[in-house]
Each structure stands twice: as C-alpha cells, then as structure tokens.
Records
---
Amino acid sequence: MAELSATLGTASPSAGDYFALLKPRVMSLVVFTGWVGLYLAPGHLNPVLAFTAVLCIAVAAGAAGCINMWYERDIDALMERTRNRPLPAGLIAPSDALGFGIVLAVASVVLMALATNLVAAVLLAMTIGFYVFIYTIWLKRRTPQNIVIGGAAGAFPPMVGWAAVTGDVGIPAIALFALIFFWTPPHFWALALYRAGDYAKAGVPMLPVVAGKAETKKQILLYTLALWPISVAPTLLGTVSWVYGGSALALSAIFTVCALRVRRDNGDRAAKQMFYFSLAYLFALFVLLVADRALGFSFATGA
C-alpha cells in the first residue's frame, strides 16, 4: 500500500483522469467516421439502435486507447508529448487502467451484438484486437511499418457502422476503410518528423528515426498521391455524386502540395502544418460524404 501511495500520490484519481485514458481526441474522429459508415449504409436502423451502435464504437475506441496507455506507460513517461498522461503521471494504478479497458472492451462488443448483429460485433472486436495486439504489442516497438499496418485499426469504424445497418460489409464500406488506411501513414509521419527526437529517446522505430527524414518525406508524398484515386472511390462506386468527388480531388491536391512543401522544408514548420491539415482533410472528406447524401445528389447503390 505504501508503494502504491507513493506512486499515485495522495489524491484519488478523478473521472477526468479515467476519461483521459480513453484518448478522447482520437475517439472523436473514430466515432465520427463510424457514424458516417452507418449513415451511408443502405437500409434503415432504428434511431435508438443507431445511437447504441455509435456508442459502442466510441466505448470500444476508448477501451483500445486505455489498454494502449497501460501497455505503453513506460515509453509514455519518456516522451514529452505523453509524459503527463494519467499512468506516467502516477494518477491511476496500471492494474486499474487495464481492468477499466478490458471491461469497456467486452461491454462494447457484447452490446453491439445484442443491439445490431454479430457481423458488426465481430468487426468491433477485430478493431480492438488489431489495435491492442497487432499495433501496440507486436508492431509499434519492432518495425517502422507500425503505422502502415497498424493503421488498419483506425480504418475499421466505417465498416463497423455499415455492418450495424446491413449485417455485412459492402464494397463502399471497404472504400472508406481504404481511405483511412492510406491517410494514416502521411498523417502520423508528419507528426513523427517533428517529434523524431521523442521517438528516438523512447526507442520507437518510427520511419524518421530508422530511415531518416528524407525517406520519410518521400513516403509521405507517395501516400498523398495514392489518396487521389482512393478518395474519389465512393463516387466511382456510385455511393455519392461527383459533387463529393470533385471536392475530394481538390482536397487531395492540397494535401499533395503540403507534402511537397514538407519535402522542401528543412525545418519543422511544414510538417506541423501538414499534420494539422491532414486532420482537416479527413474530417472534410467525411463531412462531404454526409452532405452529398443528405442533399440528395446521389443514391447508394447498395453494393
């Protein structure tokens, strides 16, 4: 008990400390993309069940983030960006964080199965499992491809939302998965460029640490170019109209310009700007998907 008190200090953890374990900023983007998948899916889901499905996606994302923080508390303590998180700051006991994450993970999957269908629940379980076991435990400390492969975890939510309505995984849902999957590397590598010292100190083999900044900038540019056809895929599949498609091409062009600026910049300014624009880019694409459907420019094919 004395050791635990020394670790945690005198104050009991607050609700805010536990909420911080859920990575709320990451959760918000996951919830939004999951809801868009649900909204675009052909068919109808009772509003109460639709809300429950989105809630399950949110809780599952928080659970995965919580378990991630439990496992990475040692390297979080070494990095300036993460050292004030609840576990390295000694605000919450590691065992409590792990238990909290596991309970939330199980509850979210079970509730999804009861409220919607087994396919959506299995996909939700795969999302949690991929983030925890594949990305956090297996890849992150072993390979500079951690973000490339591990990015699949963040790409599952639109498929989960789609499956909650349809009971299957349609090709348009896979297109949304691909959009997030190919967006993830340039998004995180832009961050890694100006946080390379932090990752090196923590022993995390992010691409700028292992391959150098020049190679990272090249890969960022290649991925932004790959996003051109991928971003417009929902239009090519007939899910939305060319109102979305034209806007997606314009946003992808700006994203590529950001990558070109990063490649020419020897400092951190362009990388920081690209990181923040990448968030706006993905958010804008998913807003445009919803707006295109809401305004009736096109109808889902049901593919």
---
Amino acid sequence: MALTLVGCAPKEQQPKVYGRYVPERKDDFAWENEYAAFRMYGPALLPENPSNGIDLWLKNSPALVIDTMYGRELKDHRPYHINYDGNLDCYKVAHTCGAGGLVVLTADGEGTNGEGYRTWIGGPYDRWEILEQKPDRFVFRLEYDSLLVAGQIFHESLTITAEAGQLQNKAEVVLTSAQPSATGSQLLAGGGIYLHDTVDYYMTIPEVGYVLYEEDALSDKQAAQMNYEYNGSTSQGRIQISVKTPGATLTDIVDGNLVAVRPYELGDTLTYYFGATWSKWHPEN
C-alpha cells in the first residue's frame, strides 16, 4: 500500500498586537493590544505644546482599531472623539503625563503640593524605532533629546513593550545628561496618571508600587458634548488606568498626578508598567 504525504500550509496567525508610526497625523506613534490603544506625540505637533505623556484610546473588543480610527478621522472627517461603534478617543492629555507617562520629581519647597516635590513633564519625541513586530508582541523605542528637569536638559530613551493578553505595557526608561549637575542624584522617577479636573476614585498599594485611577469616560467636557450630539447621551462607561513601578518609594498624588516613583540614578534603566481598561470592553463584542 502506498502512503501519500500531503503538505499543509500553516495557518496564518491573526495579530493581536499592532503599532506604527503615523506620519499622516503629525508624527503620532500609536500601538494597541486586545484591551486598549495608545499613542504618543511626535515633532510635527510641537507648535501645539504636546507632552511626552501617553494618550489612551478605548476599545470595546479585542479587534484592532488604530487604522480604522485614523481613517475615520482623517479621510472620512468623522471625529474619533465620538463613539460610533465601540471605539473612542475621549481621554485628554494636553501637557501632562496622561495615562501612564513618565513623571520625574525633584525635591522643591516651592512645589504646588504639600510634600515639597515638583513634577517635570517633557515634550514630544524626536525619533522612533520599531524593534520587534510580531502578531503577539510589539516593541518600539522613542528618543527624546530635551527633557527639561530643574534647569537641566536630559536625554530620554523610552522602550515600550506591548504583548497580547497583558493588561499593562512595559516601559523601560534611561535618562542621561552631558551637563555636570547635582540634579541627577536627586531624582524620583516612574509612571504617572493625570487626574484631570477632579479626583474621582483612586487607590494605592505602596507595597508593590501600584496605583489605580478610575473616572467617567467622558470627563472631558468637549468629548461629552460631541457624544451627546451624536448619541443623545453622555454615558459612555468608566475608565480604569493603572501604573506599577517596582521599588516605588512614593505612591501618592503630586501636582495633580497620581504617581508611583522611586529614586533614580542617571544611566540606570527604570522599569515600570501601565495600562487601561474600559467598562464597555467584552471579548465577544
């Protein structure tokens, strides 16, 4: 009896993680996994005073949405600040750390909080590089040439890893400076969450360097108005944003940011984690 072997082509794995440079939207860099999408601001946006903070896009299912949302905004002129079919950009960053961006603190008696710290937020990135792009893993690096901290200019190298099935992204930060200064030996650094106009609900677990913030998805008045005009409702669920900084020595509200920070020495690698979820998310949407 003859035996015949039949070859079968391997089934193509559908990507669960995705990201790219977005030149058509002022040098954005955007990425996502099943749970949420994020973006960071590039040099073309500099005249609008953006930050090195992280913007958050909500999604109600594991489906990849970045290209759809940019296409809808830029080609169809349908603002991505409106929830049409389960995807929504309603989180306002402006010049803040946003939803998990880097926060650097220095001891400062003139700080606006009672603890005597001052927060420092940077501007848009200068260069980008994709290090790894697989269906279940996306790694990229952003370089910032001019992070100003207490009168000293730092270089920030930020590597972000997004993986399928993980609620949080991994951020690895290295700060360096050519300027001789004592500032670098007095830094606290880690991830932060901007609290917008009001503190809704937050929690801290200092033992593991964990902070969490929850707010109404339409806390931004402009987004609330746009969604009301289209959907007839200002109810779009709630957002939860979390940050974990291993070794954090301060988990508290500083200058309107919920931070998890630790002492930082220039040249070292600071590792922290950040992520977000939406109450409307469901795996079968």
---
Amino acid sequence: MKEVTDKENSDNIREKYEEALCCIDEQRNSEALQLLDRCIEVRCRDPKILYARAVTNLSMGNYRKAACDLLKTVVLDRSFVPAWKQLGFVQFMLGKEEGAVKTLLKGIEIDPSYAEIYCVLGDTYLDLGEFENSKEAFDKALELEPQNPEPHSKIAMYYLARGDMKGLKKEYEILKTLDSALASQIGTLFFDTP
C-alpha cells in the first residue's frame, strides 16, 4: 500500500512541477511559486525544484529568497552550473561583487564552456571597474557562442562604458541580424536611427 502511495505522490509532484514550469514560461510567477512550494514540502532536497523556485523568485525580485534556494541547489548538486550562474547573479545584484566573482569562477571550473556564466562574470568585473577582466569574460562568451545576442549586447555595454563608440557601433551592426529589437534600442539611444 505504501508503494502505491509513494508512486502516486511522486506522480503528483512531477505534475505540479511540470505545471509550475509552464507557469514560469507564461510569467504567472505567483502560481508557479505556490506549486513549487507544495512540491518542496514533499521533496525539500530536490535541486531541480529548488532551482525552479529560485528562478521564480528572481523573476519577482525576491533576491534573498532566490539566494537561499540557489545555495541549497549547489550544495545538493555541485555540478549544476546554471545554479552557480544564477547565484553569482544574485550576489552581484545584492552588491556582493567579490563573492559573485568567486561563485562564477567556481561555476566556470565545473563547465568552462557555459557562455552565459561569462556574461554575468563580465558584468561583475565591469561593475568593479576591472575592465580588462570584463572584456576577457565577454570575449570568451562570444568565442563560445558567436551567434548568441547576449554576449554581443554585453560587449556593446562594455564599449559604451569605455567610451568606445566605434566598438559599440560594430556590435550594433552585428546585433541588427541577431536581435533587431535590441539593435533598435541601441540605435535609438546612441546613433540617431529610428
């Protein structure tokens, strides 16, 4: 009898988790949070569920709550690099840049081919005024994913911070093909284009 109950419970948690992911995709964050809270009541040590709740809390601006779940996630699954990236992002957002750098470098040790983590690292270095380290991180992200608009937008902001309008213009031209909406924003702000 207990086996049936455990299986039913497991199926129910899986359904709630899947439903929560759909809510996250549809930006129905309050609903997602309620579903994930119920899942965690049963599976408090499931890194995927904790991570999903952390991402939901991030979307809602609840950085400290997100940090708690992200810390639990990396303790339970040290190889879960997206959690390291998000934890570094939260630390950065909370003004703990030095901690963010350490966290992000730990994630890079685990998977040096994860481009998104270099973008957050570059932002953190930029905030610290470590321009060479920032450029190096953004360049690595670009090397790993040259067709991803995020590293291009990050390096564009690096060029802007450095006052390098030629570099900004170059990235603007690239972004026109990768993310026209973002390119339009940059063009409108800096190049007098409609």
---
Amino acid sequence: MELLRSNLAIEPDLQNFIQFVLTAVSRLGGNAFAASLAALEMAQALRTAGAATGYPLPASLKLERRALLVAWGENGHQQQIAAFSEAPDPAAVEQLHQYLQQSTAVSDPAQLLRRNAEMERFLNETRARTEQEIEAMQAALEKRQEALSASIRQAETDALTGLLNRRAYDEKLAHAFSRTRRQKTEALSLLLFDLDYFKQVNDEFGHQFGDAYLNKMACAMRAAIREEVDMAFRFGGDEFAIVQFCDETIACRTAMAVLAEMGGKVSIGVATLKPSQAGEIDLADFIKQADDALYEAKRAGRGRVVISSCVPPGGGGCTFFCPKLTGVANSRPE
C-alpha cells in the first residue's frame, strides 16, 4: 500500500519527507531508533539520486506486509526503513494514510515559491548543460566526419599524381552512368588515355623523370576539365581516364587539349552516351566502346584521339572518327 508520494525538488521537501517517514514508523509501532539510522542512509541515497537539487525526484512511502519501504527514481530503487513483528492494524494504517495525505495537501506559499525557483534553476542548468553537450557532440561528429572523409579521399587517391585511383573509378563511373540513364538530360563521356612509349621514357631518363612526366599528365587533365564536376583518374602505370558530363564535341576538345599539352604523345579513346541512348546501352558496353576507341588510336599510329560513336549492341558496331592533328607528333618522345 502506498502511504505517501512526494517530489523531492528542494531541501524542505526532503526534510519533510524524512519527518513523515519517521512519523509513520512511530504511529505503526516500529523501532524509532533503528528507523532513524535507516532514514539517515536513505537521505544520503536520495541526495545522490538528485533530491534537493531542483530536480523533481519522485519518492514514495509504502507498506508491504510487515515492512515499511521507501522507493524512489524511475529505476525503482528502494530501502527498508522498518520491519514490524506483525502486520500493523488496518485501521491504524488507514488513519496514518489519511494523516499523511492531509499533511501534504496544503503547502506553505513561501515553500512553493522556493520550489518553483529551484526547479526553474535546475531546468535552466539542465538546458545549458544539454546545449553544451550537444555542441560537443556536434563538434566530435564533425571531426569524425572530416577524418572519415580524409580517410576515404586517401583510399581513393593515387599517391603519386593526386588523381582519383582505380577503386574510385569503378564506383564513380558506375554512379555517373546510372545518373545519366536515370535523368536523361545530359550526355556522359568516358575518355581513356595511354601515354605513348612511357616505358622508354622510364628506361632512358629514369623513374624520377617518369614520375614527373606522369604528374605533367595529371596537371594537363585537371586543366582540361571542370573542377568538382568532371573527374580524372589514374589506374596505375601509364593509364588514365576522365569521366566528363558532356557530349562528344566537348569531350573531343578536352582530349585534344590534353594531347597538345603532352606534345602529341598520348593515345586517347572516347565514348559518349547520349541521353537518347540511356536505355539502350549498359555500362559494360559503354566502357568497351571507349576501350575499343583507345585500341584503334594505338593501332592507327598513336598520338591521336579516336571517338567512338556509340550504338546499341547488335546495331552494327561502333564507328570511329579520328581528328587530324596539325603539327602534333606521333613519334617517340624526344
């Protein structure tokens, strides 16, 4: 049976509650001295739980068979205050219940004001603490996101040139291809590059010169595309790629710019997916057509751009267009 329920927001609430507990022990014929010791322990436990801090800690006084208990908090903590040799008289229990209810029905106005002030202070402190914790959590989250982004960038970046690597190529090309097929509003071009006679460059001039040559290629590619829109990749060795959201005319212009910057010593294959073809060609066919165009550029003498005019599988194959490169050498590197 619950004899009393109270919220112990301020110190007077706690003191009154302890006094009611001791009164209950006395009226039910319990050991007042033992109950006083138990009440001291209870008071310490209640303060630890947040009583008298402005926090409205709920506490109740219960009679269960021959034991008088105090329970508090949402987790159901409880402590025995007194034990009786036999069950208290029901009439005495009812009278005690009525007495406790009447004693807590009317509160001192000054105490009400103090309780309200303490609870307001507690709420303001809690709000400020929560805001600080949220700010700290947001800062920690942003820091982790930055670390994660840096880790992803590192995992997707070629260490020598700073271009995206093969791992990133597979993912980002598939995403770009799906976007083009879904939106059907802009063309997508894939440009594949192979440095001509790069092994000879390394053999004749050394790997340090070869690394500088690869970085020159990376700079030429970056200069030819739109930052944060198009993407440049290095697969490893002397193989590179660009994924560009454009038609074959612009893709050809991009390829020619890279070819000119590299002194005409790059073989380039280009495939373009037009919005009207978005539902007719799959990713594997798209890559194959760019690869076929690159092979044709190398077979035709290197140092040139070959553009594949993509058609659906079974539609007669790809046709190729090789721009005439005025003044661009197709020979080995000087």
